[in-house]
């Protein structure tokens, strides 16, 4: 935001004058200014919630320690994001979470990409001084894609909210209250029976290893994986997707929060439909039927055979005997070139595409 923006809100954060967009939260303003405030229950795809209290800050003139993620900016606010008191409050939050957490970092697939690990490290919390009852929530779900291990749940509500706010599915709700609160399906049904679409959005927002992708289990530590950003090839939405891979095999898919038309979201196909890439049945070369038998052919041979076939039909029956059907998997440019070929090359307007796969 530049100096002359007349509608900007003027703030002071940690002694620095900052301009912020009106209507945003203190957390938005801090992030836009590059000021780190730790969070656990926040996801920019979701409405502010204020569950974890990790993002507490001080605001001059306000009582207590408001949560940065739920406090709206106002002109003239003076905000402190870091001091000993705030650090102590945040440490207590983490200590309380660790007092009822299955510390499974040795074998948890989320290790290295876990927000709880990150804040514990940042605040120097290696153990909890609090003792008492611990949850033992069995992870029972017979479905092929999503693992639920509520011994690691921190009750941030992100899975409940993304399923309701973004997916419109409301498969989960927060069950019980206080210490016993957990996200669960109606009557603890399997996700298969609870109307789940298996988009994996809940897994994508879970800040810890309570929800994870079953197929990714033991396929590699986060730091061993390479990642490649590309465009999902399944439909015309063209979501930005990041594939994690190891030794040339895709192990999982995610999406960056800050770019692409999808801004972190993926559907079931984009998130889980990548098994075909390394499948032994996958076609990797064109096939031509010779003497009634399909045989591998080069692209030049295949294109020549298609051209000859089209030419024969046009000569015998006219161009309107041909229909061109393109694919939503192609790019706009590829589809443009295809319709041009059918219209200008073949001479018919019989051209369409499948909208979705
Ligand atoms: S996979 Fe999608 S539909 Fe199923 S519970 Fe998670 S967010 Fe909801
Ligand atoms: S399962 Fe994950 S996203 Fe859901 S409430 Fe627990 S920690 Fe949060
Ligand atoms: S298939 Fe799903 S993830 Fe892929 S582009 Fe379409 S909507 Fe996006
Ligand atoms: S991130 Fe603000 S209360 Fe959880």
Please describe what this structure looks like.
Helix content is 24%, strand content 17%. With 357 residues, it is of the alpha+beta class. Among the domains are: 74 residues, Ubiquitin-like (UB roll) (Roll), CATH 3.10.20; 64 residues, N-terminal domain of TfIIb (Single Sheet), CATH 2.20.25; 68 residues, no CATH class. The protein has a four-stranded mixed β-sheet with strand order 2-1-4-3, with helices on one face. Strands 9-10-11 form a three-stranded antiparallel β-sheet. Strands 5-8 form a two-stranded antiparallel sheet. Helix 2 crosses helix 3. The longest helix is centred in the C-terminal third of the chain and has 19 residues. The structure holds iron/sulfur cluster (3 copies) and FE2/S2 (inorganic) cluster. One iron/sulfur cluster binds next to helix 4.
């Amino acid at each position: 935001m530049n100096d002359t923006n007349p509608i900007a809100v003027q703030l002071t954060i940690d002694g620095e004058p900052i301009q912020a967009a009106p209507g945003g939260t203190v957390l938005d303003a801090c992030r836009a200014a590059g000021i780190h405030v730790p969070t656990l229950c926040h996801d920019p795809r979701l409405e502010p919630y204020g569950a974890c209290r990790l993002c507490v800050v001080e605001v001059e003139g306000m009582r207590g320690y408001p949560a940065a993620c739920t406090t709206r900016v106002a002109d003239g606010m003076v905000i402190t994001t870091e001091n000993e008191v705030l650090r102590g409050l945040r440490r207590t939050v983490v200590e309380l979470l660790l007092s009822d957490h299955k510390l499974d970092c040795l074998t948890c697939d989320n290790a290295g990409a876990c927000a709880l690990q990150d804040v514990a490290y940042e605040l120097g919390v290696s153990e909890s001084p609090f003792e008492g009852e611990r949850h033992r929530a069995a992870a029972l779900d017979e479905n092929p894609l999503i693992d639920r291990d509520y011994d690691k749940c921190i009750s941030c509500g992100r899975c409940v909210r993304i399923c309701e706010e973004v997916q419109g599915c409301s498969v989960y709700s927060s069950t019980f209250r206080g210490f016993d609160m957990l996200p669960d399906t109606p009557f603890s049904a399997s996700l298969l029976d609870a109307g789940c679409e298996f988009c994996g959005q809940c897994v994508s927002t879970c800040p810890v290893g309570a929800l994870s992708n079953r197929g990714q289990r033991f396929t590699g530590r986060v730091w061993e994986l390479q990642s490649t950003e590309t465009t999902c090839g399944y439909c015309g939405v063209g979501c930005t997707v990041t594939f994690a891979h190891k030794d040339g095999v895709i192990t999982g898919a995610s999406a960056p929060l800050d770019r692409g038309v999808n801004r972190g979201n993926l559907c079931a196909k984009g998130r889980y439909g990548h098994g075909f890439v390394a499948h032994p049945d996958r076609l990797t070369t064109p096939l031509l039927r010779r003497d009634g038998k399909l045989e591998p052919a080069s692209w030049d041979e295949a294109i020549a055979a298609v051209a000859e076939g089209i030419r024969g039909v046009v000569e015998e029956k006219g161009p309107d005997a041909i229909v061109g059907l393109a694919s939503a998997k192609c790019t706009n440019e590829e589809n443009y070139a295809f319709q041009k070929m059918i219209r200008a090359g073949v001479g018919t307007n019989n051209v369409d595409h499948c909208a979705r796969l």
